[in-house]
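Problem 3 from the worked examples.
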Amino acid sequence: MTLVDKLSLHGGAEHLALMTATRLDAERFESFFCVSRWPPPPSEVAVEAQNAALARLEAAGTRFIPLGRKRKLELAPWRRLAMFLRRERIDVLHTHKFGSNVWGALVGSAVRVPVLLAHEHTWSYEGNPVRRVLDRELIARRADRFIAVSRADRRRMTDVEGISPDRTIFIPNGIPPSPTPSGRDVRAELGIEQDAPVVGAIGVLRAQKAHHVLLRAAAQLVGDHPTLAVLIAGEGPERAALEALARELGIARNVRLLGFREDVADVLQALDVAVSCSDFEGSPLAVMEYMDAARGIVATAVGGVPDLIEDGTHGLLVAPRDSFALAGAIASLLSDPERARRMGARAQARRRTEFDIDTLVRRLEDLYVELLEQRRAQRRRRRRGS
Protein backbone atom coordinates (compact mmCIF):
# COMPACT_ATOMS: atom_id res chain seq x y z
CA MET A 1 0.00 0.00 0.00
CA THR A 2 1.12 3.51 -0.90
CA LEU A 3 -0.07 6.17 1.57
CA VAL A 4 -0.18 9.88 0.67
CA ASP A 5 -2.01 12.93 1.93
CA LYS A 6 -3.54 14.04 -1.39
CA LEU A 7 -4.27 12.70 -4.86
CA SER A 8 -2.48 14.86 -7.40
CA LEU A 9 -0.95 14.90 -10.84
CA HIS A 10 0.81 18.20 -10.12
CA GLY A 11 2.61 18.06 -6.76
CA GLY A 12 6.01 16.42 -7.16
CA ALA A 13 5.84 13.93 -4.26
CA GLU A 14 2.18 13.09 -4.76
CA HIS A 15 2.63 12.60 -8.50
CA LEU A 16 5.71 10.44 -7.97
CA ALA A 17 3.83 8.25 -5.46
CA LEU A 18 1.02 7.80 -7.99
CA MET A 19 3.42 6.95 -10.80
CA THR A 20 5.26 4.31 -8.75
CA ALA A 21 2.10 2.71 -7.34
CA THR A 22 0.58 2.32 -10.81
CA ARG A 23 3.76 0.90 -12.37
CA LEU A 24 4.42 -1.97 -9.96
CA ASP A 25 4.66 -5.35 -11.65
CA ALA A 26 1.08 -6.68 -11.44
CA GLU A 27 2.33 -10.27 -11.55
CA ARG A 28 4.35 -9.73 -8.36
CA PHE A 29 2.42 -7.08 -6.44
CA GLU A 30 -1.18 -6.22 -5.61
CA SER A 31 -1.12 -2.43 -5.35
CA PHE A 32 -3.30 -0.23 -3.14
CA PHE A 33 -3.23 3.58 -3.21
CA CYS A 34 -4.50 5.19 -0.01
CA VAL A 35 -5.24 8.93 0.17
CA SER A 36 -5.97 10.30 3.63
CA ARG A 37 -7.53 13.62 2.55
CA TRP A 38 -10.25 12.49 0.17
CA PRO A 39 -12.49 14.00 -0.98
CA PRO A 40 -10.45 17.22 -1.07
CA PRO A 41 -11.83 20.53 0.23
CA PRO A 42 -13.87 22.31 -2.48
CA SER A 43 -11.29 25.12 -2.63
CA GLU A 44 -8.60 22.62 -3.69
CA VAL A 45 -10.59 20.75 -6.31
CA ALA A 46 -9.12 20.59 -9.79
CA VAL A 47 -11.76 18.27 -11.17
CA GLU A 48 -10.10 17.31 -14.43
CA ALA A 49 -6.79 16.51 -12.74
CA GLN A 50 -8.50 14.49 -10.00
CA ASN A 51 -10.49 12.52 -12.56
CA ALA A 52 -7.36 11.88 -14.61
CA ALA A 53 -5.57 10.55 -11.53
CA LEU A 54 -8.49 8.27 -10.67
CA ALA A 55 -8.58 7.01 -14.26
CA ARG A 56 -4.87 6.22 -14.09
CA LEU A 57 -5.38 4.17 -10.93
CA GLU A 58 -8.28 2.27 -12.51
CA ALA A 59 -6.37 1.59 -15.72
CA ALA A 60 -3.44 0.16 -13.74
CA GLY A 61 -5.67 -2.04 -11.58
CA THR A 62 -4.50 -0.20 -8.46
CA ARG A 63 -7.16 -0.15 -5.75
CA PHE A 64 -8.04 3.33 -4.50
CA ILE A 65 -8.57 3.62 -0.73
CA PRO A 66 -9.90 7.03 0.45
CA LEU A 67 -9.85 7.73 4.19
CA GLY A 68 -11.98 10.90 4.29
CA ARG A 69 -9.74 12.82 6.71
CA LYS A 70 -10.79 16.46 7.15
CA ARG A 71 -8.82 17.62 10.20
CA LYS A 72 -5.19 17.22 11.26
CA LEU A 73 -5.78 15.23 14.46
CA GLU A 74 -8.90 13.34 13.36
CA LEU A 75 -8.49 9.73 14.50
CA ALA A 76 -11.38 7.88 12.83
CA PRO A 77 -9.72 7.73 9.39
CA TRP A 78 -6.61 6.13 10.89
CA ARG A 79 -8.74 3.51 12.63
CA ARG A 80 -10.22 2.71 9.22
CA LEU A 81 -6.73 2.39 7.83
CA ALA A 82 -5.71 0.02 10.64
CA MET A 83 -8.73 -2.19 9.99
CA PHE A 84 -7.97 -2.28 6.27
CA LEU A 85 -4.30 -3.14 6.80
CA ARG A 86 -5.31 -6.06 9.04
CA ARG A 87 -8.10 -7.31 6.78
CA GLU A 88 -6.05 -7.23 3.57
CA ARG A 89 -2.88 -8.43 5.31
CA ILE A 90 -0.76 -5.74 3.66
CA ASP A 91 2.90 -6.77 3.43
CA VAL A 92 4.45 -3.37 2.69
CA LEU A 93 3.25 0.09 3.72
CA HIS A 94 5.10 2.82 1.80
CA THR A 95 4.34 6.34 3.01
CA HIS A 96 5.25 9.67 1.42
CA LYS A 97 5.95 13.05 3.09
CA PHE A 98 6.04 13.97 6.75
CA GLY A 99 2.38 13.70 7.78
CA SER A 100 1.81 10.33 6.15
CA ASN A 101 5.19 9.15 7.44
CA VAL A 102 4.15 9.93 11.01
CA TRP A 103 0.73 8.27 10.80
CA GLY A 104 2.07 5.36 8.79
CA ALA A 105 4.71 4.68 11.45
CA LEU A 106 2.07 4.75 14.20
CA VAL A 107 -0.67 2.77 12.48
CA GLY A 108 1.55 0.39 10.53
CA SER A 109 3.59 -0.63 13.55
CA ALA A 110 0.46 -0.94 15.73
CA VAL A 111 -1.04 -3.54 13.39
CA ARG A 112 2.36 -5.11 12.68
CA VAL A 113 2.63 -4.54 8.96
CA PRO A 114 5.75 -6.55 8.08
CA VAL A 115 7.59 -3.80 6.18
CA LEU A 116 7.29 -0.04 6.71
CA LEU A 117 8.97 2.47 4.38
CA ALA A 118 8.96 6.24 4.90
CA HIS A 119 9.80 8.48 1.94
CA GLU A 120 10.97 12.06 2.44
CA HIS A 121 10.86 14.24 -0.67
CA THR A 122 11.97 17.75 0.29
CA TRP A 123 14.23 18.96 3.08
CA SER A 124 13.02 22.18 4.70
CA TYR A 125 12.98 21.76 8.46
CA GLU A 126 16.41 22.24 10.00
CA GLY A 127 14.88 24.79 12.36
CA ASN A 128 11.91 22.66 13.46
CA PRO A 129 12.96 20.71 16.58
CA VAL A 130 9.62 18.88 16.91
CA ARG A 131 9.89 17.55 13.39
CA ARG A 132 13.49 16.48 13.92
CA VAL A 133 12.48 14.53 17.02
CA LEU A 134 9.55 12.85 15.27
CA ASP A 135 11.72 11.92 12.30
CA ARG A 136 14.40 10.41 14.53
CA GLU A 137 12.44 8.91 17.43
CA LEU A 138 9.20 7.88 15.71
CA ILE A 139 9.57 7.47 11.96
CA ALA A 140 13.17 6.25 11.73
CA ARG A 141 12.78 3.85 14.67
CA ARG A 142 9.65 2.20 13.30
CA ALA A 143 10.31 2.28 9.57
CA ASP A 144 12.53 -0.40 8.07
CA ARG A 145 14.08 2.27 5.85
CA PHE A 146 13.82 6.06 5.63
CA ILE A 147 14.16 6.94 1.92
CA ALA A 148 15.93 10.15 0.88
CA VAL A 149 15.64 11.46 -2.68
CA SER A 150 19.06 13.14 -2.68
CA ARG A 151 22.49 12.52 -1.20
CA ALA A 152 22.27 15.89 0.56
CA ASP A 153 19.01 14.88 2.25
CA ARG A 154 20.47 11.59 3.41
CA ARG A 155 23.47 13.43 4.91
CA ARG A 156 21.12 15.81 6.72
CA MET A 157 19.13 12.90 8.15
CA THR A 158 22.35 11.83 9.88
CA ASP A 159 24.07 15.17 10.56
CA VAL A 160 21.05 17.30 11.49
CA GLU A 161 18.52 14.81 12.83
CA GLY A 162 20.83 12.19 14.29
CA ILE A 163 19.24 9.27 12.42
CA SER A 164 21.45 6.20 12.14
CA PRO A 165 22.81 5.86 8.57
CA ASP A 166 21.83 2.18 8.46
CA ARG A 167 18.17 3.25 8.71
CA THR A 168 18.37 5.50 5.63
CA ILE A 169 18.75 4.88 1.92
CA PHE A 170 19.18 7.18 -1.07
CA ILE A 171 16.98 6.38 -4.06
CA PRO A 172 16.91 9.09 -6.76
CA ASN A 173 13.64 10.11 -8.34
CA GLY A 174 12.75 9.39 -11.93
CA ILE A 175 10.17 10.42 -14.49
CA PRO A 176 8.69 8.79 -17.58
CA PRO A 177 9.62 10.12 -21.01
CA SER A 178 7.88 13.43 -21.58
CA PRO A 179 4.95 13.47 -23.99
CA THR A 180 5.89 14.32 -27.53
CA PRO A 181 5.16 18.02 -28.09
CA SER A 182 1.99 18.50 -30.10
CA GLY A 183 3.56 21.13 -32.31
CA ARG A 184 1.36 23.79 -30.80
CA ASP A 185 3.05 27.18 -31.08
CA VAL A 186 2.90 28.54 -27.55
CA ARG A 187 4.84 31.67 -28.52
CA ALA A 188 2.27 32.54 -31.19
CA GLU A 189 -0.57 31.76 -28.76
CA LEU A 190 0.88 34.24 -26.25
CA GLY A 191 1.80 36.88 -28.83
CA ILE A 192 5.55 36.46 -28.36
CA GLU A 193 7.83 37.17 -31.31
CA GLN A 194 9.65 34.10 -32.59
CA ASP A 195 13.07 35.71 -32.10
CA ALA A 196 12.33 37.07 -28.61
CA PRO A 197 14.31 35.52 -25.73
CA VAL A 198 12.03 33.39 -23.53
CA VAL A 199 12.84 32.06 -20.07
CA GLY A 200 10.49 30.21 -17.80
CA ALA A 201 9.73 27.88 -14.94
CA ILE A 202 7.32 25.05 -14.25
CA GLY A 203 6.07 24.62 -10.69
CA VAL A 204 3.54 25.35 -7.99
CA LEU A 205 3.46 29.03 -7.03
CA ARG A 206 4.53 28.66 -3.42
CA ALA A 207 7.21 30.38 -1.37
CA GLN A 208 9.67 27.47 -1.60
CA LYS A 209 9.96 27.93 -5.37
CA ALA A 210 11.15 31.55 -4.96
CA HIS A 211 9.74 32.71 -8.29
CA HIS A 212 10.21 36.28 -7.07
CA VAL A 213 13.96 35.79 -7.56
CA LEU A 214 13.32 34.95 -11.21
CA LEU A 215 11.27 38.14 -11.59
CA ARG A 216 14.04 40.22 -10.02
CA ALA A 217 16.55 38.60 -12.36
CA ALA A 218 14.27 39.37 -15.31
CA ALA A 219 14.15 43.03 -14.27
CA GLN A 220 17.94 43.11 -14.61
CA LEU A 221 17.82 41.44 -18.03
CA VAL A 222 15.23 43.60 -19.80
CA GLY A 223 17.70 46.44 -20.36
CA ASP A 224 19.71 44.26 -22.74
CA HIS A 225 16.71 42.15 -23.79
CA PRO A 226 13.68 44.46 -23.97
CA THR A 227 11.52 41.79 -25.66
CA LEU A 228 12.30 39.21 -22.97
CA ALA A 229 9.32 37.02 -22.05
CA VAL A 230 9.06 35.19 -18.71
CA LEU A 231 6.63 32.27 -18.63
CA ILE A 232 5.68 30.62 -15.34
CA ALA A 233 3.37 27.60 -15.59
CA GLY A 234 1.68 26.60 -12.35
CA GLU A 235 -0.81 27.83 -9.80
CA GLY A 236 -0.65 28.50 -6.09
CA PRO A 237 -0.87 30.93 -3.17
CA GLU A 238 1.97 33.21 -4.36
CA ARG A 239 0.22 34.27 -7.58
CA ALA A 240 -1.08 37.64 -6.35
CA ALA A 241 2.29 38.53 -4.80
CA LEU A 242 4.12 37.68 -8.02
CA GLU A 243 1.70 39.76 -10.10
CA ALA A 244 2.22 42.69 -7.73
CA LEU A 245 6.02 42.32 -7.86
CA ALA A 246 6.02 42.25 -11.67
CA ARG A 247 4.11 45.54 -11.66
CA GLU A 248 6.45 47.04 -9.04
CA LEU A 249 9.52 46.05 -11.08
CA GLY A 250 8.02 47.47 -14.26
CA ILE A 251 8.08 44.13 -16.09
CA ALA A 252 4.39 43.21 -16.03
CA ARG A 253 4.30 43.23 -19.84
CA ASN A 254 7.19 40.75 -19.92
CA VAL A 255 5.73 38.27 -17.41
CA ARG A 256 3.00 35.74 -18.08
CA LEU A 257 1.65 33.57 -15.28
CA LEU A 258 0.09 30.74 -17.24
CA GLY A 259 -1.67 28.84 -14.44
CA PHE A 260 -2.02 25.07 -14.72
CA ARG A 261 -1.05 23.80 -18.15
CA GLU A 262 -1.71 20.32 -19.47
CA ASP A 263 0.63 21.00 -22.42
CA VAL A 264 3.87 21.33 -20.42
CA ALA A 265 5.85 19.72 -23.25
CA ASP A 266 4.71 22.49 -25.60
CA VAL A 267 5.44 25.20 -23.03
CA LEU A 268 8.98 23.86 -22.56
CA GLN A 269 9.58 23.93 -26.31
CA ALA A 270 8.85 27.67 -26.21
CA LEU A 271 11.68 28.32 -23.72
CA ASP A 272 15.26 29.25 -24.49
CA VAL A 273 16.22 28.82 -20.83
CA ALA A 274 14.36 26.83 -18.17
CA VAL A 275 14.84 28.01 -14.58
CA SER A 276 14.56 26.44 -11.14
CA CYS A 277 15.21 29.07 -8.47
CA SER A 278 13.94 27.24 -5.38
CA ASP A 279 15.15 27.92 -1.86
CA PHE A 280 15.20 24.17 -1.18
CA GLU A 281 14.40 21.00 -3.10
CA GLY A 282 14.55 17.25 -2.82
CA SER A 283 14.96 15.79 -6.29
CA PRO A 284 12.76 18.09 -8.39
CA LEU A 285 10.71 16.48 -11.13
CA ALA A 286 10.46 19.83 -12.94
CA VAL A 287 14.23 19.91 -13.45
CA MET A 288 14.05 16.38 -14.83
CA GLU A 289 11.38 17.59 -17.26
CA TYR A 290 13.69 20.42 -18.33
CA MET A 291 16.42 17.86 -18.90
CA ASP A 292 14.14 15.60 -20.92
CA ALA A 293 13.15 18.55 -23.11
CA ALA A 294 16.84 19.35 -23.75
CA ARG A 295 16.44 22.94 -22.59
CA GLY A 296 19.23 25.19 -21.43
CA ILE A 297 18.92 25.04 -17.63
CA VAL A 298 19.78 27.44 -14.84
CA ALA A 299 19.03 26.20 -11.32
CA THR A 300 19.86 26.90 -7.71
CA ALA A 301 22.36 24.46 -6.21
CA VAL A 302 20.05 23.20 -3.46
CA GLY A 303 19.12 19.73 -2.21
CA GLY A 304 19.32 17.11 -4.90
CA VAL A 305 19.71 19.49 -7.84
CA PRO A 306 23.51 18.95 -8.01
CA ASP A 307 22.76 15.19 -8.27
CA LEU A 308 20.92 16.01 -11.51
CA ILE A 309 22.88 18.92 -12.98
CA GLU A 310 26.66 19.03 -13.07
CA ASP A 311 27.51 22.73 -13.26
CA GLY A 312 28.79 23.66 -16.69
CA THR A 313 27.98 20.25 -18.18
CA HIS A 314 24.20 19.81 -18.03
CA GLY A 315 23.34 23.40 -17.07
CA LEU A 316 24.41 26.21 -14.79
CA LEU A 317 24.05 26.26 -11.00
CA VAL A 318 23.81 29.37 -8.83
CA ALA A 319 23.32 30.14 -5.16
CA PRO A 320 19.73 30.51 -3.93
CA ARG A 321 18.24 34.00 -3.45
CA ASP A 322 20.93 35.60 -5.64
CA SER A 323 19.05 37.37 -8.41
CA PHE A 324 22.27 38.86 -9.81
CA ALA A 325 23.88 35.44 -10.22
CA LEU A 326 20.66 34.07 -11.67
CA ALA A 327 20.44 36.91 -14.18
CA GLY A 328 24.10 36.45 -15.15
CA ALA A 329 23.68 32.72 -15.76
CA ILE A 330 20.53 33.24 -17.82
CA ALA A 331 22.24 35.98 -19.84
CA SER A 332 25.21 33.73 -20.58
CA LEU A 333 22.96 31.05 -22.09
CA LEU A 334 20.86 33.56 -24.01
CA SER A 335 24.04 35.00 -25.53
CA ASP A 336 25.40 31.57 -26.49
CA PRO A 337 22.50 29.40 -27.72
CA GLU A 338 24.87 26.77 -29.09
CA ARG A 339 26.34 26.23 -25.61
CA ALA A 340 22.82 26.01 -24.20
CA ARG A 341 21.92 23.45 -26.87
CA ARG A 342 24.94 21.27 -26.06
CA MET A 343 24.18 21.36 -22.34
CA GLY A 344 20.54 20.54 -23.03
CA ALA A 345 21.49 17.52 -25.15
CA ARG A 346 23.79 16.19 -22.42
CA ALA A 347 21.09 16.77 -19.79
CA GLN A 348 18.54 14.90 -21.89
CA ALA A 349 20.84 11.92 -22.31
CA ARG A 350 21.54 11.83 -18.57
CA ARG A 351 17.88 11.99 -17.61
CA ARG A 352 17.02 9.11 -19.89
CA THR A 353 19.82 6.85 -18.62
CA GLU A 354 19.93 7.71 -14.90
CA PHE A 355 16.60 9.20 -13.82
CA ASP A 356 13.88 7.10 -15.43
CA ILE A 357 10.65 6.17 -13.65
CA ASP A 358 11.02 2.48 -14.51
CA THR A 359 14.48 2.41 -12.93
CA LEU A 360 13.00 3.93 -9.76
CA VAL A 361 10.14 1.43 -9.67
CA ARG A 362 12.46 -1.57 -10.10
CA ARG A 363 14.63 -0.28 -7.23
CA LEU A 364 11.57 0.03 -5.02
CA GLU A 365 10.29 -3.41 -5.98
CA ASP A 366 13.65 -4.95 -5.13
CA LEU A 367 13.69 -3.12 -1.80
CA TYR A 368 10.16 -4.30 -0.94
CA VAL A 369 11.07 -7.94 -1.62
CA GLU A 370 14.44 -7.74 0.13
CA LEU A 371 12.99 -6.27 3.33
CA LEU A 372 10.01 -8.63 3.30
CA GLU A 373 12.30 -11.65 2.95
CA GLN A 374 14.44 -10.33 5.82
CA ARG A 375 11.34 -9.97 8.00
CA ARG A 376 10.16 -13.48 7.18
CA ALA A 377 13.60 -14.91 7.91
CA GLN A 378 13.59 -13.16 11.31
CA ARG A 379 10.22 -14.69 12.12
CA ARG A 380 11.43 -18.16 11.14
CA ARG A 381 14.47 -17.77 13.38
CA ARG A 382 12.28 -16.62 16.30
CA ARG A 383 9.97 -19.60 15.85
CA ARG A 384 12.93 -22.01 15.82
CA GLY A 385 14.34 -20.31 18.90
CA SER A 386 11.07 -20.69 20.80
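Problem 4, a separate protein:
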Amino acid sequence: MAVGMAAVLAALGLGWPGVLLYPLSLALLGIAFTAAGALCAQVVAASRLVTGLGLAVLVVAFVVRGIGDVRENALVWRSPLG
Protein backbone atom coordinates (compact mmCIF):
# COMPACT_ATOMS: atom_id res chain seq x y z
CA MET A 1 0.00 0.00 0.00
CA ALA A 2 2.86 2.37 0.80
CA VAL A 3 4.44 1.70 -2.61
CA GLY A 4 1.13 2.42 -4.33
CA MET A 5 0.70 5.62 -2.33
CA ALA A 6 4.22 6.72 -3.26
CA ALA A 7 3.47 6.05 -6.94
CA VAL A 8 0.29 8.13 -6.80
CA LEU A 9 2.03 10.98 -4.98
CA ALA A 10 4.84 10.91 -7.55
CA ALA A 11 2.31 10.94 -10.38
CA LEU A 12 0.71 14.02 -8.82
CA GLY A 13 4.05 15.81 -9.03
CA LEU A 14 4.88 16.17 -5.36
CA GLY A 15 8.48 16.56 -4.21
CA TRP A 16 10.55 13.41 -3.75
CA PRO A 17 11.25 13.62 -0.01
CA GLY A 18 7.52 13.80 0.71
CA VAL A 19 6.70 11.13 -1.86
CA LEU A 20 8.96 8.68 -0.02
CA LEU A 21 8.66 9.76 3.61
CA TYR A 22 4.87 10.15 3.95
CA PRO A 23 3.97 6.61 2.81
CA LEU A 24 6.88 5.23 4.84
CA SER A 25 5.64 6.98 7.98
CA LEU A 26 2.11 5.62 7.48
CA ALA A 27 3.46 2.10 6.92
CA LEU A 28 5.54 2.33 10.11
CA LEU A 29 2.47 3.58 12.01
CA GLY A 30 0.55 0.52 10.82
CA ILE A 31 3.41 -1.75 11.84
CA ALA A 32 3.57 -0.16 15.30
CA PHE A 33 -0.13 -0.66 15.97
CA THR A 34 -0.02 -4.18 14.52
CA ALA A 35 2.76 -4.99 16.97
CA ALA A 36 0.74 -3.48 19.82
CA GLY A 37 -2.27 -5.59 18.82
CA ALA A 38 -0.16 -8.75 18.61
CA LEU A 39 1.29 -8.03 22.04
CA CYS A 40 -2.18 -7.47 23.51
CA ALA A 41 -3.39 -10.73 21.94
CA GLN A 42 -0.55 -12.59 23.65
CA VAL A 43 -1.27 -11.04 27.05
CA VAL A 44 -5.05 -11.61 27.29
CA ALA A 45 -7.28 -14.47 26.21
CA ALA A 46 -10.56 -12.79 25.20
CA SER A 47 -10.81 -11.03 21.85
CA ARG A 48 -13.06 -8.34 23.30
CA LEU A 49 -10.38 -7.46 25.82
CA VAL A 50 -7.76 -7.30 23.04
CA THR A 51 -9.97 -4.79 21.23
CA GLY A 52 -10.31 -2.73 24.41
CA LEU A 53 -6.58 -2.75 25.02
CA GLY A 54 -5.93 -1.77 21.42
CA LEU A 55 -8.29 1.17 21.71
CA ALA A 56 -6.66 2.13 25.02
CA VAL A 57 -3.24 2.16 23.32
CA LEU A 58 -4.67 4.35 20.54
CA VAL A 59 -6.24 6.77 23.03
CA VAL A 60 -3.03 7.03 25.07
CA ALA A 61 -1.00 7.64 21.91
CA PHE A 62 -3.46 10.34 20.83
CA VAL A 63 -3.43 12.04 24.25
CA VAL A 64 0.39 11.97 24.45
CA ARG A 65 0.60 13.53 21.01
CA GLY A 66 -2.02 16.13 21.93
CA ILE A 67 -0.13 17.13 25.07
CA GLY A 68 3.08 17.38 23.06
CA ASP A 69 1.37 19.57 20.46
CA VAL A 70 -0.13 21.90 23.05
CA ARG A 71 3.10 22.28 25.01
CA GLU A 72 5.17 22.39 21.81
CA ASN A 73 7.86 20.08 23.19
CA ALA A 74 9.47 16.75 22.31
CA LEU A 75 6.64 14.75 23.93
CA VAL A 76 4.93 14.64 20.54
CA TRP A 77 7.71 12.36 19.26
CA ARG A 78 7.07 9.80 22.02
CA SER A 79 3.79 8.85 20.37
CA PRO A 80 3.50 6.76 17.19
CA LEU A 81 1.00 9.34 15.96
CA GLY A 82 3.62 12.10 16.23
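Solution to problem 4. The chain has a mean pLDDT of 90. The first helix runs from residue 2 to 11.
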